[in-house]
Every structure is written in structure tokens, then in C-alpha cells.
């Protein structure tokens, strides 16, 4: 038997061969040797024989898993954020680490040490809706178109009456009509509006976010 160093060259009997030519016992012996050599090469489950395939494959799987963990762990260290359109927890996907849902209902913003609203990691703020105060509204005036009012009055320029200057029924009067115009005025309208909150949302798209905690 040459296996596992080389492939065995076994002789198969033919129908014209005599019972013991080639040797029947030798045929069984060669077959058994080949089977035993294959089993030794493949190995049993959880084999401790370092030359067996089972041992090498198990070691390779361990090495690959360790390598994957090292690579992904470098990309996603503790504290990293993972985003996806799949709800599967990264621990299930990657096979390691502890991950928790992160940032529910919030968007991410970069840290700005010069801005008090954004100068701490995981600092939160903002509002989904907002009601403007008077100070927040743009300065403005509601102007009504300028207009005036006119009306007619009569004026007596001459009359005849008694010595007391009181007109009598026989008095004659000289009347003239004059139009008086009140100067144009500009009016300011009264307050209006419903004072309701309005949407404060930017355009958005929803994804799953996870933070690695361990």
C-alpha cells in the first residue's frame, strides 16, 4: 500500500481469473489498508491527530473565526455604531460582541467642541415640533392701505333777521356747500394666527442603528 504518500495501484479481478489469482486475501488486505489509511488521513470527529483533515479543518475554522473577529473588531471597536436596513443584531451577524439598539428616533451629528449644543458625545437635544415665540418670529408689520373720509357741510354766508341776529322765517340766507376731507391715515391690523406647533423635521430616511458595548 502506497497511500497516503502516493495513490495505490490496486488490481481488480476479472471474470476469467481463478479464485485465488490475484490472491483473494491480498485483495482484502489491500482494500482494508486503503480504508484504514483514508480514515487516518480524514480523522475522527474532534481528532487530536494534527495530521488529520478533521484536526486541520477545525483549526482552520477557529483561525478564520478569530481572523474575522479581529478584522471586524478593528472596523467596529467597542463604541462603534453599525447601521443597516436589516433588524438582525450584529452579534448574530458577526458572531461576537455585545450590541444594543442606538439613537432611536434621532439623527447623528458630528461633535463640535466650539458649540455648547454639540460638544459632548451622545449629548441629545432638538425637538420634533416647535412653537415659535414672539421673539423668534421675523420682525414684521401688517399694513392696511391708506385711505381718507369726505363729507359735505353747509355754510351760511349772509342772512336777514331781527335785531338780535336770530333768523326769522322771512330771512334770506346765502348758503354754500364745502367738502371737508379728513387726512389719510395708516392703520395696523390686529393679531392673527392659531399659535400651533409646526413640524421641525429635516428630510430623513430610517435605518437600524446599533452600538457595540462590549
Tell how many strands the DSSP assignment holds: 7
Helices and strands, in N-to-C order? HHEHEEEEEE
Judged by helices, strands and strand pairing, the structural class is alpha+beta
Major sheet: order of its strands?
Answer: 1-7-2
What does the main sheet amount to? Answer: 3 strands, antiparallel
Outline, from the CA principal axes? rod-shaped
Q: What value does the average pLDDT take?
A: 82
- Described by its quaternary structure, the protein is single chain
Bin the strand percentage.
15-25%
Radius of gyration: 52 Å
Distance linking N and C termini:
55 Å
Blueprint of the fold:
Layout: H1 24-42, H2 53-75, E1 81-84, H3 90-94, E2 99-101, E3 129-130, E4 147-159, E5 173-185, E6 198-199, E7 208-212
Antiparallel strand pairs: 1-7, 2-7, 3-6, 4-5
Describe the protein's architecture and organization.
By secondary structure, the chain is α+β, with helices and mostly antiparallel strands. Helix content is 22%, strand content 20%. The chain has a three-stranded antiparallel beta sheet, with no helix packed on it. The chain has a two-stranded antiparallel sheet with strand order 3-6.
Task: Jot down its keywords.
three-stranded antiparallel sheet, alpha+beta, two-stranded antiparallel ribbon, 3 helices, 214 residues
